[in-house]
Fold this sequence. Notes:
Layout: H1 5-16, E1 29-34, E2 39-43, H2 56-66, E3 72-78, H3 88-97, E4 102-106, E5 112-116, H4 117-120
Parallel strand pairs: 3-4
Antiparallel strand pairs: 1-2, 1-3, 4-5
Amino acid sequence: MAIDWDALIAAAQRVRKRAYAPYSRFQVGAALLGKSGRIYVGCNVENASYGLTICAERNAVFSAVAEGEREFVALVVAGKDPQVFPCGACRQVLAEFCDDLPILIVGEDGTQTETSLCELLPHAFRFKENIHKVG
Ligand code: THU
């Protein structure tokens, strides 16, 4: 499938504006392309009990799974800084559903950084391959 990166960037930047981040003031948006061609978005949602905060990337994955999509083609993360890389927890959650995944990081200043899940999380922990297809 050809990846429409512009559409993913626009979706990530749009949802970033909906982020609920009154504590950090650090809004993040994520747009995840499913194998079906659908785009799933997520923003970070913070909480007064700080540890309950959920990142944009995990919200995008969970939204996709709730819609029945478990296979992914690309991810765009839009943040304030030039390089807002997914946190370790989000990398592990992505690895549950992706062997590898091209990831584009987009900063508010327009900086684009290409990376991939395997680059960010080599040797991810998994029980067995493709377990998400049966569960
Ligand atoms: N955050 C994300 O949503 N994604 C990332 O990749 C990094 C961090 C959020 C969590 C928290 O709401 C804020 O950014 C500051 O850490």
